Input
Amino acid sequence: MVQDNFLGNYTSCVAARSTNRGILAGSQDGGIATGLLAFALEQGIIDGAVVSVMDPAEPWKPMPIVATSPEELYFARGTRYSLSPNLSLIKEATRSYGLDRVGIVGVPCQMQGLRKGQLYPIGLRDVPDKIALAVGIFCMENFPYQSILQLVEDHGNTKLENVVKMDIGKGKFWIYTERGAVVQLPLKITHKYEQPGCHVCLDYVSNLADVSTGSVGTPDGWSTVFVRSKKGNDVWAKAMAAGCFETKPIEEVKPGLELVTKLATEKITKNRKSLEERAKFGVGKGLRNPYI
Amino acid sequence: MSDKITAGHVHMSGCTGCEVAIADNYAGLLTLLDKYVDWVYDLTLADVRHIPEMDVALVEGSVCINDHLSVEEIRETREKSKIVVALGACACSGNITRFARGGQQNQPQHESFVAIGDLIDVDVYIPGCAPTPQMIRNVCVCAYLLLKGNDDQKALAGAYLKPLMAAAKCDPAPTGCGHACGCDLIVGVINQGLCMACGACAASCPVRAITMEYGKPNIDRELCIKCGACFNQCPRSWYSFDVTNQYESIMETIDAAMAP
Output
């Protein structure tokens, strides 16, 4: 078990990508989240999973759903850089959907909410013992839907319904359109549109997930994967044995863990500072610190 | 096991839903009674008329200040118990009894209800309407370990209970803490720049008063019963890295303690 102040506890870290071309065709990077949940669903490790798809009513607006089939999981491939309150369905998944083994995908703050909910299930009756697999995503910050609209349509001069993929990488916000145009915005522009609540977040790589994954650290088309908990180890080992993923040691890929550590340190250091500034925000008065 | 703690259930103005939630641990309740707790007082389940001395009193319901017996009993509960737990939202914050205005048979003059913390010092809050069986289980196991466990268990259980003990000492302040209303989310989380759109509040609401609109909670205040579940479930209301970073070992400890 590696214990790292910024990257959390993990038993192994690898570069990986799905061996399923169908998954890779629509995934953000290495298709880890979709591939792992699809495998877990097929094996009966989970009965379904809370994932995020695009709202049919508004382009690129995420909407949480409870996916109970591989087809529904496939709809959820790829990243939508906006708010998807996946935890809002965590109890419903065990009620209307009747799931006994629930999978969930989420960003670090949602993994924190999930674990708080399992330890302190104040309004989550019968949920804590039914969480079978939590897949965490790396996350630097998130954007309200109106911010995405503003960035893509105003700054990017691109119609949101024509966009086929968005990505944040190499210091830029990338917008790919269906006709092949690529727009890139420097992150200097995107910063002011970030969700304010992200600025107190002290987790970059979903330290509390069973398995966490993200693009940072690995080449295009691959993902960095941290395997963290007993449940995570169990399902990852089974998925590897079944040939779901090809992997490379993280030490052998560029830019590798060094970049992940660098970005995690930057995020957490910046947000610790923002918590300090909040404490003396007014004159002799501050803003609330949620961490006790 | 001889080293049990003593506990009981004190029934103020509540609907017995909290007690049902204790029982909803099913076989787990039997394990708790077999191994950890002597159940010394409970109007519904035990043939004991007067509140005895006990280690832990679980108080359900708010106090009707128009009913002198209730007032006497809540005072007596405080005097005779080492630890007083406000079990459920009525005891913690008044919950739905906050809407009462009397006129109900057969005691129409009973119209004023206050959270038990308005009259006595409370040690631990278990909010929610009803509190969940798993939450009650977790608190019971941790309370036992805090009182009777080894040093490691004491530290772990102490860290676990700390936020619930802090909640019991919390004044209604600009933090939003203490009002036990959906508006706490707005005042204490969104107004403070802390909401990150996880949806835990919507999932925890027992009356489905919260929908997520563009990622943020929208509260139907006509539906809200003031149970406080949403605010307390929110990871940005209070959050302990000490506890959640050890979530796996805490849950294993609880599972091991609950093994029959």
User: Anything to note?
Assistant: The longest strand of chain B covers residues 5-11. Residues 156 and 204 of chain B are 25 Å apart (CA to CA). Confidence is low (pLDDT under 50) at residues 172-176 of chain B. Chain B has two domains: 5-171+247-258, 183-233.
